[in-house]
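User: what does the whole thing look like in 3D?
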Amino acid sequence: AQKITQTQPGMFVQEKEAVTLDCTYDTSDPSYGLFWYKQPSSGEMIFLIYQGSYDQQNATEGRYSLNFQKARKSANLVISASQLGDSAMYFCAMREGQSGGYQKVTFGTGTKLQVIP
Amino acid sequence: GAVVSQHPSRVICKSGTSVKIECRSLDFQATTMFWYRQFPKKSLMLMATSNEGSKATYEQGVEKDKFLINHASLTLSTLTVTSAHPEDSSFYICSAKRLGYEQYFGPGTRLTVT
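Assistant: Here's the predicted 3D structure for the full assembly of 231 residues, as structure tokens:
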């Protein structure tokens, strides 16, 4: 079974609109972390936001927020007020185990977001 | 945030030669470094995990003798692709972490084998 599933290979959004990128995960580990990364055409992986499995509140970082629904095992990324510079590949990832110990991060297949002027 | 660098950012080599990629944590001591490979329009696949001063742990299907990993110091890990072939052409990304923190990614190295 896939550990991280991103069902949207591509998405379009109008500039200044909000967009939600879907991510579901599968793990039996009670301690895990969920990440979203942005990868522009240059290739570098840019960290956007992190949610720990024990965090009570949904993570937010500027225009990025993570809609964490633990029971449904989903961790959708919401980008508010989209900008042209948001056009990129977006990867959801999961780290299983304690952050202080050994960690293996598994990535989803990514969603290509294109912001339309 | 923490800074991780990779060198070179792009490299072209001839088939049969070896190429070395460096990954450095610039402002922290990395207890663990990870090497990923990304095929075009695909996700990142973990190749190996290396801890400073010990042998790397390779993921299933990754050839140890082909992809040599050395983590000689707390700020440097190297990946050497030996006897490179065109199918080794890919984007290689490293990440580094210190105890108690999440991993930080380098900018990646694009390898083209002709």
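In plain terms: The first strand of chain B starts at residue 4 and ends at 7. The CA atoms of residues 97 and 103 of chain B lie 4 Å apart.
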